[in-house]
Design a protein that fits this description.
about 15% strand, 8 strands, alpha/beta, binds pyridoxal-5'-phosphate
Length: about 230
């Protein structure tokens, strides 16, 4: 895995740079979030050794098991929460993560804000948008996004830096990413977390600032956890 980690990382970074070139994104604009869910600390360590510092996890408990130990060796890690968050896990999430990508309802926004004040940690957050209005996916409806971002900022006091989405499976993602970019512009946020292993170049073409890449870096997940069922 060790040689594989460095090689996979270099290959994905190269593809990101080529997509940025092709679509005119400034060099510093696209952040690679390496999605390490389901992979043990042993499988993550070679990516840290190869220089990767930004990671994504979808479950609070799993992050709690894996990351404090890894952080001990690498204090400059940035860990993104990319899975649905229950309000009763908000306190732990605020302690464990550096960026929350899945703010999607007022109750959660309020609880997160209170926990951030309590912990003295004002974390950058993304609002997750259910861009395909799919019943099984989390996220605020597109039509409610602009008002929700405003409430997150003005009512709850959260630091909303962008929007995040997981487009529907099996159809071209481009139009969904373009829609997310429009919503971000309307909401006055610059961050766009969109694009995974199969479509991050499309995300970059549509203005992604963050791509969340799992299997293309780490390999096939032990059990295939679909991106829309982050609770299993
Ligand atoms: C698992 C997951 C990813 C990574 O998916 P890959 O297809 O393995 O790159 C990205 N975003 C979210 C929200 C996920 O749950």
């Amino acid at each position: 895995m060790d040689a594989g980690a460095a090689g996979n990382l270099a290959a994905i970074r190269e593809r990101i740079a080529r997509a940025q070139d092709r679509f005119g994104a400034p060099p510093e604009r696209v952040e690679l979030v390496a999605v390490s869910k389901t992979f043990p600390a042993d499988a993550i360590a070679p990516f840290l050794a190869a220089g990767q510092r930004v990671f994504g996890e979808n479950r609070v408990q799993e992050a709690k098991d894996k990351w404090p130990g890894l952080r001990a060796g690498y204090p400059d890690i940035t860990l993104h929460l990319i899975g649905p968050l229950q309000t009763n896990k908000a306190r732990e999430a605020v302690a464990l993560f550096d960026v929350i990508e899945t703010v999607d309802r007022d109750k959660l926004a309020g609880v997160l804000a209170a926990e951030m004040v309590r912990a003295g940690r004002r974390l950058p957050c993304f609002v997750q948008v259910n861009i395909g209005l799919e019943a099984q996916k989390a996220g605020i409806a597109p039509a409610e996004t602009v008002a929700f971002v405003q409430r997150c900022r003005d009512v709850h006091g959260l630091d909303i830096v962008g929007l995040m989405c997981i487009p529907p499976d099996g159809v071209p993602p481009g139009p969904y990413f373009a829609h997310l970019a429009t919503l971000a512009r309307d909401a006055g946020v610059s961050g766009l977390s969109m694009g995974m292993s199969g479509d991050f170049e499309v995300g970059i073409a549509m203005g992604a600032t963050h791509v969340r890449v799992g299997s293309a870096l780490f390999g096939t997940r032990p059990k295939d956890v679909p991106a829309d069922r982050q609770d299993i």
